[in-house]
Amino acid sequence: GKVDPLQLNTQPENYPGVASVMLWHGMLQSPGLKAVEERIEQVTGFPAAHFSDFVIDKIEPGAHWKPHYDTHPYYTPMATIIVFLTENGGPVVYPSSSTPVKVLPQKGMAIVHHNTDEKNQMDMSTVHALLPVKEGEAAYVARKYVFTTPVSTARRVALPVFAFAFGGKLPGVFSVFHDMLVEKFGVEDGNTYFDKACQFIPLLLVACLVQYLVNYVREQLEGNNKNKSSKSGEKEKKGQDTKKQPSSKKGKKGTKKDKAL
User: Fold this and answer.
1) pLDDT at 49 over 80
2) N or C terminus of the chain with fewer C-beta within 10 Å?
3) C-alpha Rg value of the chain to the nearest Å
């Protein structure tokens, strides 16, 4: 798979056979997702503004996670939340912890582990993996990350708006645009410019929509005025014709009388 920092697909080599997709809901969450996020906030103590959206992994038989740390080229998440969406997947293991841990999948169960220590350094004991399933139906696991700084408004509002029409999936052009800005201006400025652009584009689209509606209403009003003026003109012509007709008849009768005389 291709590395995509914007959509948190930064280590595709560690997820062989896994189909991953990030669902951009942000502040446009359904009541169900909002309840889940509030529950995670209560249990973990992490503020929801620091959460990423969910990355959904489809794990076919034979697919798995290799042992790895959760890192990011720009901002490593301080914690990871793993949620089992089905019960038929493989277990998650932490082989490097002081006591090796193996967590069997249960639908709805969440695992939370810190990726960094109190000094904001990578915690080497958090290496983890998801063991493969040899046969059966595909399993689903959701991942959510917690960052040290709040997720920007652009990524909690603007990008979910763009992704809404695609079922929460963000078109690839946004990742291309993001990577281009980061490559040209650096990590910090590139991400800042990207966020500003994402906030500006919806405003531009709204302005264009408003202008279109104004022009449409204006055209409709002008069309109605033209129709009214044309109808009134036709009425005036008919009125003039009806006035002219009697006078012409009278003139004809008068000529007849003159002839008779």
Assistant:
1) yes
2) C
3) 34
How far is Cα 249 from Cα 247, in angstroms, rounded to an integer?
Answer: 5
Quickly state the pLDDT bin for 257 (edges 50, 70, 90). very low
Question: Which is nearest to 147 in space by CA: 231, 52, 226?
Answer: 52
According to the 3-state scheme, what is the secondary structure of the chain?
Answer: CCCEHHHCECCHHHCCCEEEEEECCHHHCCHHHHHHHHHHHHHHCCCHHHECCCEEEEECCCCCEEEECCCCCCCCCCEEEEEECCCCCCCEEECCCCCCEEECCCCCCEEEEECECCCCCECHHHCEEECCCCCCCCEEEEEEEECCCCCCHHHHHHHHHHHHCCCCECCHHHHHHHHHHHHHHCHHHHHHHHHHHHHHHHHHHHHHHHHHHHHHHHHHHHHHHHHHHHHHHHHHHHHHHHHHHHHHHHHHHHHHHHHHC
Angle at the Cα of 5 from the Cα atoms of 4 and 7, rounded to 5 degrees: 70
pLDDT value for 255: 47
Contact 88, 58 (CB under 8 A): no
Task: Choose the weakest-confidence range: 15-19, 52-56, 70-74, 170-174.
Answer: 70-74
Region 33-44: what's the mean pLDDT? 89
| Residue 99 C-alpha from the chain's centroid | 41
Who's near 34: CB < 8 A, 6+ residues apart?
none
Amino acid making up residue 141: V
13: Cβ–Cβ under 8 A, 6 or more apart, which residues?
66
What is the rounded average pLDDT of the residues 31-49?
89
Strand pairing of 128-130 and 92-94? Answer: antiparallel
